[in-house]
């Protein structure tokens, strides 16, 4: 009877809500979601940023609702899911080229693909691969785009591992740090998640601003 109740709860999970995912699947769910978001085009809508931050927060046991995760296994699951997913997406892109994107009818996914390709062309492989980790949807489509565009395997692997570790471990530890230091942090969870998502866009915004400033300076000199 208990097993049936647990199964029913998992089937009723809201995949767009970080707390719902964590309540149903725990640490294992973090790895699976990050793998799907970064490695499979169908996972572009999954809440990677908020999931990592909320999971880190729940490791402190201060968020209520009787749910507490273990930090060590969580960090391992987050890193493995993020890195393995990205590498999988790259390999799929190398084998299937652009056909995977061509089959999708999602306007949001195609817009993300255009932004990913623009990142690769404008900032070079290293910066683009790292920056993409912090931009929803773009972090999903850049990996197969990099494979389709034949980014060298060693180059992609080096920078996706660097960006993936900074992103997955950084957001998780940020949630853990805040949960450990802020009393009744559960009250402020939604605003904090919004701030985290906004902050994750700063690296890309900074690069866009710098690129436009340099382009304008060249025009003025020319």
Automatic annotation (TrEMBL):
| Localization, UniProt | Cell membrane
Among the Pfam families in the record, one is VTT_dom
Keywords of this entry: Cell membrane, Membrane, Transmembrane, Transmembrane helix
In which domain of life is the source organism classified? Bacteria
Instruction: Extract the InterPro entries matched here.
Output: DedA-like, VTT_dom
> Topology relative to the membrane, per the entry?
Multi-pass membrane protein
Q: Where are the transmembrane segments?
A: 21-46, 74-93, 156-176, 188-209
Domain VTT, which positions? 46-176
The family line of this record is: Belongs to the DedA family.
Which PANTHER family does the UniProt entry name for this protein?
A: INNER MEMBRANE PROTEIN DEDA-RELATED, TRANSMEMBRANE PROTEIN
**UniProt-recorded name of the protein:** DedA family protein
């Amino acid at each position: 009877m208990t097993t049936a109740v647990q199964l029913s709860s998992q089937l009723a999970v809201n995949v767009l809500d970080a707390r719902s995912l964590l309540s149903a699947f725990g640490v294992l769910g973090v790895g699976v979601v990050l793998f799907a978001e970064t490695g499979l085009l169908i996972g572009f809508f999954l809440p990677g940023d908020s999931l990592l931050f909320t999971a880190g927060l729940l490791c402190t046991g201060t968020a209520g609702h009787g749910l507490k995760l273990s930090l060590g296994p969580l960090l391992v699951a987050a890193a493995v899911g993020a890195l393995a997913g990205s590498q999988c997406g790259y390999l799929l892109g190398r084998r299937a080229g652009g056909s995977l994107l061509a089959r999708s009818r999602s306007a949001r996914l195609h817009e993300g693909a255009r932004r990913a390709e623009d990142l690769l062309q404008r900032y070079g492989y290293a910066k683009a691969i790292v920056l993409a980790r912090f931009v929803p949807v773009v972090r999903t489509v850049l990996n197969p785009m990099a494979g389709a565009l034949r980014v060298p395997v060693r180059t992609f692997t080096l920078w996706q591992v660097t960006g993936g570790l900074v992103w997955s471990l950084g957001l998780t530890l940020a949630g853990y740090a805040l949960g450990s230091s802020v009393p009744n942090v559960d009250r402020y969870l939604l605003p904090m998640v919004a701030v985290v998502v906004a902050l994750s866009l700063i690296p890309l915004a900074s690069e866009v601003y710098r690129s436009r400033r340099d382009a304008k300076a060249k025009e003025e000199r020319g």
